[in-house]
Design brief:
Elements (H helix, E strand, L loop, with lengths): L1 H21 L5 H25 L4 H7 L3 H9 L2 H4 L2 H14 L7 H20 L5 H10 L9 H19 L10 H10 L10 H9 L11 H12 L7 H10 L1 H16 L6 H11 L1 H4 L3 H17 L4 H21 L7 H4 L5 H8 L11 H16 L9 H10 L1 H4 L2 H7 L6 H11 L5 H22 L6 H7 L14 H14 L1 H14 L3 H21 L4 H17 L19
Length: 578
Amino acid sequence: MAQDSVGLYSEYQFWMGKLSVWGQASSSETQQDICHHLPQFQEFLRQIYEVLKEMDSGTVIERFPTIGQLLAKTCWNPFILAYDESQKILIWCLCCLINKEPQNSGESKLNSWTRGLLSYMLSTFRFDIKEVGLCTQSLGYATADYYPGLLKNMVLSLVSELRENHLNGFNTQRRMAPERIRSLSRVCVPLVTLPDFEPLVEALLTYHGHEPQEMLWPEFFDAVNEAFLLKKTALSKSAITCLWLRHLPSLEKTVLHLFEKLIFSEKNSLRRIKDFMKDSLLPEAACHPAIFRVVDEMFRYALLNTDGAPEVLATVQVFTWCFIEALEIENTQLKFALKTYFPYASPSLVMVLLQDPKDIPRGLWHQPLKHISEMLRAAVEDQTQGSSGGPFESWFLFIHFGGWADMVAEQLLMSDAEPPEALLWLLAFGYNPCDGCQQRAQTMAEVRAVLSHLRKLLRSPTLSARDLQAAAGGSPDGDPQPLACGRLIRHLLLSFLLWAPGGHVLAREVVSLMAQTDEITREIIGFLDQTLYRWDRLGMEAPASRELAGELLTELSAHVQPRPTDRGCRAGLGSQAT
């Protein structure tokens, strides 16, 4: 205890010296030094409070004769007092100095001085903490007497001035000087989480002057975006959109924050991803093409750098669905040409992909799929047309619209006719976009053979897991044949199990045979989740298939091990999964 007292006394002297140097925090160097030392200083104040609360006011003055100077210097320093944590601890410390029954003039003067300091603090900032009630009761006043009317009036005055400045920018006599706006944004950096300052923060974000360079401090943008990500502020969508348009690092950090939530969230589903996505406000803000392009570029790099990780694929699709919904809500007609959102694609292809399959009779789905395949194939293989970025760009556009991409296998499987070349090509391209023409032709041939076997089994009165294993490329003795498109074949087989009446009985046995590793199990879980989500979106009525898919999803999810955070296992984009 004695050692602790010696250490605290040494710290006390150190911080007294610092407070004398900091003064009113008028210089940039001083402000930076305060920000650097603030966490340590707040911890010191907590330690002081723990000591003060055990003493009466007389003992406090004997032990710390300059405590009043230390607390006063702290209260008059705007860069310290701006943080709500500092305010709270200071109130605790000041309350320890008040003697409810002063015995002499010295104690009365101390009470009066302390009340004056508290009055200054409580009339300048708003506190929604129980300590304020205790403090004001001890002073003999109602809490309302300390309500920061002056602060609210100041904020409203500044907001009004900014808006008037924005509307009457041509009137140079009434315009707020850029230096003042920049200074104002700097002052607001530590205040962005205080509710009373939200109107001023919004006004600064939405204010647009006529200066060629950004007027607001980068630290202001960083602080606002951090507060938004941590849910410590409730700014409007328009204000957040302005933030991201004016400060690219904030937008990039938001997208990375979304990816982190998905990576460290176990057992993600498309509905969970959608909740994360909507909560981020990114799809709504992406109605502005500049934001859409940045977000889309980050998705592109994420796919390339993770070898087409399934979680990233799912995120791209969910983002696109939410983005299209936001466009429909915001615009009766598109404010921006589709070319501004998808510059590497032909507008006609984008228009076809933008069609919602649920608006087209199910029996006619093969027609737009055939059209999509023809246009994509022309872009990928016809060199006279140019690739506009190569096969990856065409594939990247296609996988945005998961409603079409995921129904190709079902269309091929459930059709009685010979598999159309266009749909076979689209299926092979969707799973392995980086294959060359010869390799894709081999994949198409393998898929055609598997489809032929499965469609025969669809009409068979009896089914066995052995038959399905053979149809999907397994030999009768259980050894797999060297197929170059294992993931694609597995998904065909899963679709068969869900749709074929005889497949329902064998589903668990066949899935158990397929799910030999955690990685394949996760792949199957993702397929089932995506299938159920797509059926819900399309309003498809298939009670037996839906029930089976739900049961399989629940059972597999309960047993699969969480993916390691280092994400060493990744599904390959363009790789030959077997």
